[in-house]
Amino acid sequence: MRFTLKLQLSLAFGLVIALLLASTLFGLNSLSTTNRELNDLVDGPAVRLNAAQKLNVHMLDLVRLEKTMILVGSPEEVQALEGEVAREKSQFEALLAKAEGLAPAEDKPRWKALGSSWEELSEVHGQVYALAQAGRDRPATALSMGEGRKHAEDVSAKVQALVELSQAELEAATRKADADFVAIRNGLIGLAVVSLLIAVGAAVFIATTVSRGLRRASDAVRAVAEGDLTRKITITTRDEIADLLGHVNLMVER
Questions:
Q1: How would you write the pLDDT of the chain (254 residues) with one tens digit per residue?
Q2: Do the domain assignments include residue 235?
Q3: Is 65 within the bounds of a domain?
């Protein structure tokens, strides 16, 4: 098979183009992966962390409203405060359901445990509300400061644990995203370096081959011009330069 200059150039440019396409596909795939990881980061640990922090706020608001409910003097004021409590409970439960739905399978039991503790706190609050509505402030205070406080502390502890868990998961996801970015950057740099080396190597090889062949042909023609008809060029390649040198040899022979 003749390894012509045209074939050499075609192979060199073909390989460079193939590497360029590979770099492009690698970059697009990497961008897709990075975008997916970013979405998972935003929709996962970040959302759960934000939800856990807000859950604690809603729980504290419920406790504050409960204490105020015991202190007010009329059933109408107690009922109005219970309306605010209902809104806090609704927001707490909506956030809890959203966070639990986004949690990985191994974390769901911890969110369910928080839901159970919240139900116990809500049940005690219902009893406190009934006592406050009936004007029985002393038993309402005892229940709120006793069993109610215990459940509130339990809910708060579980919320704090979930905050710390979400923070740890967020940090882990961030580290993974950083590591993936470094791997993608290094991969693209590696492909670019390989492409450059191949392009430079092919250019140097082809240029050297052509230059060497033309120099040998030039030396032979110069010798003929000076009257030396004994010079013969040894042909070592099978390309267009070899054809040229063969014609020079034929010219010398004739």
A1: 566 667 777 777 787 788 778 877 877 777 777 666 666 655 677 888 888 889 988 988 988 999 998 888 688 888 899 999 999 999 999 989 988 888 888 888 999 999 999 999 999 999 998 988 888 888 989 998 999 999 999 999 999 999 898 888 888 878 887 888 888 888 888 878 887 888 888 788 777 877 777 777 777 777 777 777 777 777 777 767 777 777 777 877 77
A2: no
A3: yes
Long-range contacts from 186-190, C-beta under 8 angstroms, 24+ separation: 187/26, 187/30, 188/23, 188/26, 188/27, 188/30
CA atoms within 13 A on the CB side of 65: 23
What is the number of structural domains in the chain? 1
Instruction: Confirm whether 249 is domain-assigned.
Output: no
CATH value at residue 191: 1.20.120.230
> Helix, strand or coil for residue 58?
helix
Please report whether residue 173 resides in a domain: yes
How many CA atoms lie within 13 Å of 241's alpha carbon, on the beta-carbon side? Answer: 23
How many angstroms separate the CA atoms of 224 and 214, rounded? 15
Cα–Cα dist 132/136, whole Å: 6
- Find the Cα–Cα–Cα–Cα dihedral 206, 207, 209, 214, rounded to 10°: 140
Expressed as residue numbers, the domain containing 152 is: 5-196
Residue whose C-alpha is closest to residue 201's, from 12, 2, 6? 12
